[in-house]
Amino acid sequence: MKGIILLVLGIGLLHTASAVTHSLKYFFTTSSEVPNFPEFVVVGMVDGVQMVHYDSNSQRAVPKQDWMNKAAETLPQYWERETGICKGTQQTFKANIDILKQRFNQSGGVHIVQWMYGCEWDDEAGATEGFVQHGYDGEGFIAFDLKTTKWVAPSHRAVFTKLKWDINTPDNDQNKNYYTQICIEWLKKYVDYGKSTLMRTVSPSVSLFQKNPSSPVTCHATGFYPSDVMVSWQKDGQDHHEDVEYGETLPNHDGTFQKSSHLTVTPEDRKNNKYQCVVQVKGIKDDFIRVLPDQDAANIVPIIVGVVALLLSIVAVVVGSSLEEEEQERLCSGQHFRH
């Protein structure tokens, strides 16, 4: 079941931050018949760091970073109000999954609907980007084109939804304004509020692992921050890409990140050449290098590295003391996204 959840969350990986890009992303996930998993989860992240959470089990919108909690102190009823909004959104998403199951002639079984939206800002070039995607059962279902303010349906199954949403011009214009203006403004504020956390650098711990002499060698970097990292291989001092498999950057429970790269190399080639893993983390000048020892001299402990994939949740939080004076960040909403 977890594999299905992770597949759906993968739509959020379509927008990976570059070395100078900050991101604000929200994930809404509703599911049916997934054991030991909440029916509804909302996740909010700034630069890959979770900031707020809501799920149908706790039924509470809560901050996940101290700086988010402090920012809302001027609004005494803020979290109670957002909890109520999320509860309403939960019912909308529950209705959506029932609608799609009926439309596709599906009865029972595991089904998942997800909505991912957000924006990115390049703090050097000044370029911005917004994005909206809906997924169903692990595949892209429908997305919003900010240039045309029209919905794009990659599957014929989403055509009915596209036609329904395209005619709602006021909502689509409002969406474009949010993703190109308001979202960017709040992203900048969040980065400023959380700069002590978001702008820090933490060096990685780098290790080499191999299950057995015939299996690939894994270079595993963990505990680093920020998430922008390169884990690469060199052969005799030159960049080496042949027979190399690159893993994704994944979150750790403590807010840091981990990433692996796997090298397939024969014992003979390993004996006659010098291989080394090179880890480069944004903001840290020095590279972190681990030299692959000769097969005969190797003392690489056969360890299987466990990775826990994060399912988080959120409510888009309004930060600051002048809530009534400026346009609000998009909160835990989505009622108009009725399929």
UniProtKB/TrEMBL annotation:
SUPFAM superfamilies: Immunoglobulin, MHC antigen-recognition domain. Residues 204-280 form the Ig-like domain. Keywords: Glycoprotein, Membrane, Signal, Transmembrane, Transmembrane helix. It comes from the Eukaryota. The keyword Lipid biosynthesis does not apply. GO terms for biological process: immune response. The chain crosses the membrane at residues 300-320. One of its GO terms (cellular component) is external side of plasma membrane. InterPro entries: Ig-like_dom, Ig-like_dom_sf, Ig-like_fold, Ig_C1-set, MHC_class-I_related, MHC_I-like_Ag-recog, MHC_I-like_Ag-recog_sf, MHC_I/II-like_Ag-recog. Residues 1-19 form the signal peptide. PROSITE patterns: IG_LIKE. Belongs to the MHC class I family. This is MHC class I. It comes from Oncorhynchus gorbuscha. The lineage of its organism: Eukaryota, Metazoa, Chordata, Craniata, Vertebrata. The gene is Ongo 92H.
